[in-house]
Amino acid sequence: MFGSRGPATLRPPGPDPKLGAMATIRTPDQRLRVFISSTMYELAEERAVARRAIESLHLSPILFEMGARPHPPRELYRAYLEQSDIFVGIYAEQYGWIAPEATISGIEDEYNLSEGMPRLVYVRDPAPERDPKLSEMLERIASDGISYRRYRRPSELQRLLADDLAVLLSERFSPAGRSEEPVEDRPRHDLPVAPTRFVGRQRELGELLALVQERDMKLLTLTGPGGIGKTRLALALAHGCKDHFEHGAAAVFLAPVRSADLVPTSIATALGLPVTGARSAIEVLRDYLSTRELLLLVDNFEHVVDAAPELTALIGECPRVRLLVTSREMLRLSGEHVYPVQPLPIASLNGERGPAVELFIDRATAIRHDMPLTEPVLDAIAQICERLDGLPLAIELAAARVRVLMPQEILARLHNRLDFLATGPSDFPERQRTLRRTIEWSYDLLTEREQELFRCLSVFRGGFTLEAAEGVLSGTQDLLEGLASLLDKSLIRTDASVSEPRFTMLETLREFALEQLESHAGLEDVRRRHAEQFAEWAAGIHTDGREAEAIRGVELDYDNLRAALDWLLENGDPGRVARAATLLWKFWWVRSLYTEGIEWMERVKAHPGALSQPDAATVEFVIGILAFGNGDYPRAAKALTIARGRYEELGDVRGSALTWLCLGVTMRIAGDMGGETLLRRAVNTLKEAGDDWALAFALFGLGRVILMDGRAVEATPLLEESVRRAIDAGSQTLLAIALVNLAWARMALPDIEGAREAAVRSFEEARAMDNRDSTARAVEALAAIALTEGDAEDAAVLFGAAEAIRRSIGGVVWVPDRLMHVATETTLRDRLGDELYEARYRRGAELPVAEAVKKALECGVHPHGEARAAAGAHESLSG
């Protein structure tokens, strides 16, 4: 803490031959004189407490008050310094006045003139508006080998100064000798106390406490992007385990440090150790730490990572010191334990409000005690936290807005989160006063190539694979190395929810990166390559034999596909969108996104002159089949009729047959018996073509319309063949639909056991694809089976559960199923009475989807208590 070029030389008061008679400064006695250097008005309270601390040790405080005497200021403070024995510098935000003839301020000049005497330097923290010139001066002080201590309140400064003066006197002015080592063995460092409650990281804290206590753990690095809460978690960890270390825990904050060379000096400062010109900071630290058991927290290491090897070498020589580091990138050192800090969850595992929401509520209610926690308010808070990626800093900045806005109003203004969250609490570090500054801190640490890659990756929505990045950013050099570097720096992440290598970027970071890309040349070129890449990928997806894999792949990259389709339509390339829809319609069907798919096709139709004849036919077919799936049969019939004409004109046999089968079902539902004829024509055509997938589709369509006429004996073999063809084609989607139709046919025979096998298997296939429409149909079939077996109460609950699943996607009962639906409801009401039926139905309808599925599984058990194995069901159904 103290700097000196040798022991202080004490002089009796009297004239200084270099300054002349006017330089005579006299004190009341011969006590040591302590010169206090600070700006006068900004630090008036600090000057007062410093005076008290000095006087408490019976020393003489020397405070220069400009204008107190009729002499030029520089001559006066120089005279005061010449007659002082110890220099104390106290700094906060102001650099001070620069005289007209000077190039530096008075406080910097005072520091320069103090060379050769012991120096004690104190810096107020936080100081959000610190003058850049003062920051440069503090860096120079550190580079001079003078470490300084930080304080928050004047009372803390008074205690630190009194303690340090006492140590200085014993070390520098004792006649017994002047050892450079501290005479006190007790720790002279304190962990800062957070001003707000620690929220939401109890699980992580427990894991880290266990890690710190492992015998071989010498270096633990908490990584993550800016604002993720690394510092807060690390401080909580340090407080939680400091009593396990003989000499406690100490914290070092490196954000203000500009050079890796100054890291050892900054650590020495935090530990209250003297660093003089005679010994390096590393030597002082080694001697001090080698005999101590201590947890040393070093915060914000990412911009001084070049100091990492020296620091790890230090702790290697200090066997009982554990190093806890927070950094936006890992240090890549042997023996390093890396703990990535994740965003706060929005909801807990049991569905209740999660840590992110609790953090918002805690900070908001501290500001606005009367804020009502109604359902609309809590829902808005959850959406805010989700929009902010669960980033604690962003959540705290948003919560601060409740002083003037309710959460619903905050949510409405979050369309540009970087601009909305533009100011934060004044006691936050400068780099975290706004969300934008937090991200800029990380961005500025990147190389130019890394910045370019980071910007370009912003075109991806919802994540990307390495192959996708290579396709879009083919001109980017060293892509793999660049991705690895951004991953190390916590600017991208790997997606742990998938088995294949996949990268994601927090939306908050992506928004910033996209802004940077927009401000540089090449945005539209990158967006064009992104759109072409994903449109081409979608058009080339193969579903034969691996439908579930293909649907999952589309789901993972659906946000990218949306962005690609949007760009292509905006830039006059609707044909690519139509060709992508050739396979995307299956995804829209499985996920019940009928309306969205139709809207995309309507946008394509707005460019009629840009479409080829095959593309125009595809657009009408997709509109028709999605309207068919959504139960909008008039719209389906209109679009399919147009598509039929175009396919037949083109000589497209498969396309024509697919329109025939959909039109056939639509016509039959409308009462036109010619629909069955058209369906049989589709079946015969597709059999000749050997197309198992399309044939399975046509067969269950034909079987279903025959079943509508009550011809279950004739429909059953058609539906059984449909099941076999769907299995051969590897289509779980068609298999689930074919099986539920077969279940209804077998019930009508009646064959209850066969119906149960088909319904349970349909339910399992639909669940595997997360196809809720088919899941609901299977559950309703299980309800009808339970009713047939005399279990009316369970049947009513299942009947309600089917409605709960349909409601989760905004679905309705399929028109071909409506006769059975009405019959089931009527029988249930007759058996139970309206009151009991309504109660049991409501119980099922109010179940969450997961509970509805669980209930269906329970009711899919054989009457004798033995569950039908899926393999056995498959064997009997595929015969």
Overview of the molecule:
The protein is 56% helix and 7% strand. With 879 residues, it is of the alpha/beta class. It has a five-stranded parallel sheet, sandwiched between helices. It has a five-stranded parallel sheet with strand order 7-8-9-6-10, with helices on both faces. Residues 1-29, 66-72, 173-187 and 861-879 have low confidence and may be disordered.
Which percent bin holds the helix content?
Answer: 55-70%
Write out the strand line-up for the largest beta sheet, numbering strands in chain order: 2-1-3-4-5
Q: What is the 3D shape?
A: elongated
Number of strands: 13
Low-pLDDT residue intervals, each spanning 5 or more residues: 1-29, 66-72, 173-187, 861-879
- What class do helices, strands and sheet pairing give? alpha/beta
Number of helices: 39
SS strand fraction: 5-15%
Q: Quote the distance from N terminus to C terminus.
A: 86 Å
Q: What is the gyration radius calculated from CA atoms?
A: 38 Å
The largest β sheet comes out as: 5 strands, parallel
* Overall average pLDDT: 82
